[in-house]
Structures are given as C-alpha cells and as structure tokens.
Predict the 3D structure of the following.
Amino acid sequence: MIKLLFVSHCPSENTRILRDSAVDSICKMELVNLELRTQAPELTTAADIEWCNGIVLGTTENFGYMAGLTKDFFERIYYPCLELTQGLPIVLYIRAGEDGTGTKISIERILAGLRWKLIADPLILKGNWDTKFPDQVSELAMTIAAGLDAGIY
Ligand SMILES: Cc1cc2nc3c(=O)[nH]c(=O)nc-3n(C[C@H](O)[C@H](O)[C@H](O)COP(=O)(O)O)c2cc1C
C-alpha cells in the first residue's frame, strides 16, 4: 500500500472546507493501493511521518508565520525524522488572511533542512475567501496522490 498523510491545521470553517474537499477528491480517485490518513498537526508524531510515503500539509498563517500548532509539529518531528525521511515528497497549502509569505519561506527552510521534496510550488490562498480555493487545494492533493500511486515520487 502507498500511504498518504494529510496534516492540516483547521481552526475555521473555511479551512475545514479546504481539508474536506481535498480529502473527498482523493477518495473519489478510488486509488485502491492508496491509504489516506488525515489528522491535525498536534496529533501527528514522528511515527506517522515514518509510516507515510508522502504528505499534504495545510496551515494557516498567523502573525506572519505558520500557525503555532504547525510549528509545534515540526519541532517534535524534526530530529526524530531527520535521518529517516529524506526525500519524502510533500505538497503545501497556506490559508492566509492577506499575505502567506512568511509561512511559505519558513516552511520551505524547514523542508530543506529535512531534505523533503516539494513536488509543487506551495499554494498560498490569500485574501477574501474565494470559492475556487477548495478546487485549488484538491488539485494539489490529487497531484501527489496520483504521483505516489503511479510510482513517480
Ligand atoms: C491571531 C491571528 C493572526 C493572524 N495573522 C495573520 C497574518 O499575519 N497574515 C495573514 O495573512 N493572515 C493572518 N491571519 C488570518 C488567518 O490566516 C486566517 O484567519 C485563517 O487563515 C483562516 O481563514 P478564514 O478566515 O478563511 O477561515 C491571522 C489570524 C489570526 C486569528
């Protein structure tokens, strides 16, 4: 089985819509070899990272940086995973009220340290809520799901 881990910080209705629509889209692909695990960052451990073959990571931007619970996630898994998960494919989406840059830069720096592989440009969903946002996150999530399933990543 190919294992995809969906880690998303969802403090609002909109961010839950992003997660749910992406999870829905992956399920509709009916990839029989793909196992999907969806959970909040505060419940995600180094063992979950070692279990998976790829990650979808979603966070909000708060105070110009990733959400505190997303940062806590990286702080807990960084050293336990450092030697064991190099090359892990990941996609990232950021929901930001108006910016998102600080979150993107800081997460990219951590991913470089971990040697994880961003397989698509991070998606920043900024400004007023746009009904296109869920489709954009779904497309990103389906990209990694399809790639893992096809053995590309
Ligand atoms: C305490 C707090 C700090 C925030 N700081 C930022 C920020 O620095 N930059 C930004 O673009 N959005 C910021 N936001 C907005 C959040 O990113 C936004 O509320 C979140 O992504 C949820 O989006 P939604 O309103 O579509 O549910 C902040 C929100 C909160 C609650």
Summary: The chain has one domain: 2-149. Residues 12, 14-15, 60-64, 95-100, 129 surround flavin mononucleotide (CB under 6 Å). Residues 2-149 form a domain with the Rossmann fold fold (CATH 3.40.50.360).
